[in-house]
Write a structure and sequence with these properties.
Blueprint (H helix, E strand, L loop, with lengths): L2 H9 L6 H20 L4 H8 L3 H13 L3 E7 L7 E6 L5 E7 L3 E8 L4 E9 L6 H17 L7 E8 L3 E2 L4 E2 L10 H9 L3 E5 H12 L8 E6 L3 E7 L2 E2 L31 H4 L1 H13 L18 H9 L3 H25 L3 E5 L7 H14 L2 H4 L3 E4 L5 H16 L3
Parallel strand pairs: 3-6, 6-9, 10-13, 13-14
Antiparallel strand pairs: 1-2, 3-4, 4-5, 7-8, 10-11, 11-12
């Protein structure tokens, strides 16, 4: 049987009913258990699934025949007789993750055992709400698939991260590429030929960080994505919080300031207008126009060419204007986070996104403002850390969310 049909027979549920659907559900439960344990015996699987050993053996043999799990060998058991251990086959199937930024795209491919096998960062791209920008994004995805070491029919699903408001259940974006009636995920799926899921970029990055980054045993965590805008991923009691319609985490649009700066959302006074990458660029331009100096201006002709990457590199080389402006951003960001700390009382806050690459230039003033504006009895329980994953967080989150979608047992 062709690989595509084998994967479809195991993971797709549209045409299944009765015993066939029950068997597919049990197989997904086997995958989920092996995910947690890495390997397991037939007896352990039987107890976990609460079904007979013969039934478990039959399902395992079918999955071995399909090439999705394999016999890892025998180990000693408590009864003295060696038991065979079974686990997932890493290259049985793959998941694609696409993390879309304002000026570039990161794409990665994950195997069945959650290892990134190939990834490509900072592929030039300009995110605009136009058909041309969407066509270019699809072209980049198709190019990555063509160049990848894996055949397309082994890629089970794809996750795409976009900024703004996303309905992840139907795959519709309210901020970008909503020209056609069908959901964006369905449109891309038809063009690329791979099952596609859409997710908010901050939430996907947060999920990647929660699964593969800073967390130890923390169950109540906030992940702050500081890029050109500000996004928030929320983990409550170990679960990602979406809100009723999937729009939770719009931290950057809290009406925080009494200013006349119009945010890209159309309102005034949003936190993003004073504490984001966009506000950092605006403030830098204002200071240059007032006569301040910076080494950046030796490399670019005028401030209209500025990008966030330019300012991050300048801070890394101890450009004083950039460092001072980052301190201002950190102060305002910390004041906003103080509100969240008073509301959520989290164990950990992770600063991620492009602007977090400035390290302590952002973290220290942010921490100082948190101490100043939040309740001391509350903030003493909260750690503030920088993301360890960096650019990888979005790719991992997109891959893992796409993987979870097809392995979830409803």
């Amino acid at each position: 049987m062709p690989r595509t049909k084998i994967l479809s027979a195991v993971f797709k549920e549209e045409s299944s009913s009765g015993v066939a659907l029950k068997n597919k559900t049990l197989k997904k439960l086997i995958f989920n258990f092996l995910d947690k344990t890495d390997s397991s015996s037939i007896t352990e699987l039987s107890k976990e699934l609460n079904i007979s050993v013969p039934k478990t053996t039959s399902l395992v043999n079918e999955l071995i025949e399909d090439g999705l799990i394999s016999d890892y060998g025998k180990i000693d058991s408590t009864g003295g007789r060696k038991a065979s251990m079974y686990g997932l086959v890493a290259d049985a199937c793959f998941f694609l993750g696409v993390d879309v930024k304002k000026y570039y795209v990161n794409i990665g491919l994950m195997d069945f055992k959650k290892h990134l096998i190939t990834q490509k960062y900072r592929i030039p791209f300009r995110l605009e709400n136009t058909p041309e920008s969407l066509a270019e994004l699809i072209k980049l995805i198709q190019g990555f698939i063509k160049e990848s070491p894996v055949k397309k029919d082994k890629i089970l699903s794809m996750g795409i991260n976009l900024s703004g408001r996303i309905n992840h259940t139907i795959g519709y974006s309210y901020s970008f590429f909503h020209f056609q009636e069908e959901p964006l995920s369905a449109y891309i799926e038809n063009k690329v030929g791979i099952t596609t899921y859409l997710e908010n970029d901050s939430r996907a990055m947060a999920f990647g960080e929660f699964m593969c980054g800073e967390l130890n045993n923390e169950k109540n965590v906030l992940f702050v994505n500081i890029d050109y805008g500000i996004g928030l991923g929320i983990l409550i009691d170990g679960k990602v919080y979406y809100g009723k319609s999937g729009f939770s985490g719009e931290f950057g649009h809290m009406p925080f300031f009494e200013n006349e700066i119009i945010c890209h959302c159309g309102k005034k006074g949003c936190l993003e207008t004073e504490a984001s990458g966009t506000s950092l660029i605006r403030r830098f331009r204002e200071q240059i126009e007032k006569g301040s100096t910076s080494g950046i201006m030796k490399k670019i002709k005028n401030t209209s060419e500025l990008t966030l990457t330019d300012l991050i590199h300048a801070a890394a080389t101890e450009d004083m204007l950039c460092i001072e402006l980052l301190a201002e951003i950190g102060e305002k960001l910390g004041k906003g986070l103080a509100v969240l700390i008073n509301v959520f009382n989290p164990e950990l806050i992770i600063l991620g996104g492009t602007l977090s690459e400035t390290g302590d230039y952002l973290r220290l003033p942010t921490k100082s403002a948190i101490n100043k504006y939040s309740l001391s009895l509350v903030n003493t329980d909260t750690q503030l850390k920088l993301s360890k994953l960096g650019e990888k967080a979005g790719i991992l989150g997109a891959c893992l969310l796409a993987r979870n979608k097809v392995l979830t047992v409803f």
